[in-house]
Amino acid sequence: MRIRIAEEAGFCFGVQRALDIIARSRSEGKVLSTLGPIIHNSQVVESLSRQGIESVDDLSEAKTPYVVVRSHGVPPEVYEEAKRRGIEIIDATCPFVKTAQDVARLLASEGYQVVVVGKEHHPEVMGLVGHAGGKATVVDDPAAVSGVLFSKKIGVLAQTTMRYEIFAEVVLELLKKARELRAFNTICYTTRRRQESTRELARQVDLMIVVGGKNSSNTTRLYEICVDMCVPSYHIEGPDEIDPKWLEGVKEVGITAGASTPPELVREVVERLEEIAGVKEGTK
Ligand code: SF4
Q1: What is the per-residue pLDDT across 149-196, written as a single tens digit (0 to 9) for each?
Q2: Ligand 1: residue whose CA is nearest its atom 7
Q3: Are residues 249 and 268 in the same domain?
Q4: How many A from CA of 193 to the centre of ligand 1?
Q5: Residue 169 lies in a domain
Q6: Is residue 282 part of a domain?
């Protein structure tokens, strides 16, 4: 059995940057916590906890002088609240998310009805809505557009990890409703490349394994892409979940991984597959 890994899999630029910012802050002696789990990966979160870096759900729970804003970003009120509480924010918001936040503010300030294509309760989307002045409409499905009352001047942007096809379809639906439509494709380039390389690999193999947190939005998108490609696909969080039965008759298995999946975890999945298949050759 041949095991192939998608060209773009595992930690993305924004997640790696956030972890580097934490490591640098620690080496400077800063005592810190994170606002929400830094990434959707329990091993990484537990490892930080062992180093004394806890995740808090709310600034009111923070007992450290520094709090890290993760790559998802936060609404503007969080910065104001931190100032009131005397907490210093270490901002690890991904630059691509910052760009989307700037777009949300720009559209709101120019009087557009802001539409965010994304998952309503995802922290990044909640941040984007906040940057749009709290009044944005969130949709994650083109079919949902018909049930919403829109103004004639609409500005639309995407959650950075949204599937491009969904974003494009929502834009087309909005076009039917608006007199003026301004669309910003704020899907980040690593997400696009990751989705493309997943689609490409899924086209060529007999089985796809998607590695990453079940609560990770971008990992779920990758799984959906594999399913859309009609290839048997499994979304797992770790190697222990692999059922040897999945591999019966499989000649080529593809692996892809979400932006918050550590490279070690991908390696462990490869090792488990090799162990099951009883072969070492053919691994890319
Ligand atoms: S998926 Fe893209 S936007 Fe999100 S953290 Fe990674 S690089 Fe940044």
Answers
A1: 888 899 999 999 999 999 999 999 999 999 999 999 999 999 899 999
A2: 14
A3: yes
A4: 11
A5: yes
A6: no
